[in-house]
Design a protein that fits this description.
Distance between the termini: 15 Å
Helix content: 25-40%
Number of strands: 4
Low-confidence stretches: none
Strand content: 15-25%
Oligomer: single chain
Radius of gyration: 12 Å
Number of helices: 2
């Protein structure tokens, strides 16, 4: 399993995104900034990064551009430090 921070405005204090190498799937665990909950407000598992992005858009209500930028940065981080096969 590979994870990295997801720097999405308003959700960037604790949120992560990652891949599960065994299943090839994606996941995100998102907490709104200021949350003191141990459980994420948005917890998504998806088969593709595109599907994950769609679920995060719906779950957070964040603008598409901000979600896209946050995902682009997270993907680059995962590729650089975990697996060049991350797409």
């Amino acid at each position: 399993m590979a994870t990295t921070a997801l720097f999405l405005d308003g959700w960037d204090e604790q949120s992560i995104v990652g891949t599960d190498e065994l299943t090839g799937g994606w996941f995100a665990q998102l907490w709104r900034n200021g949350s003191d909950s141990e459980r994420p407000e948005v917890w998504v598992n998806a088969g593709t990064s595109g599907a994950l992005l769609e679920h995060v858009l719906r779950g957070t209500g964040a603008p598409m551009r901000k979600v896209s930028v946050a995902f682009t940065e997270a993907l680059a981080e995962l590729r650089a430090h975990h697996s060049p096969d991350v797409t």
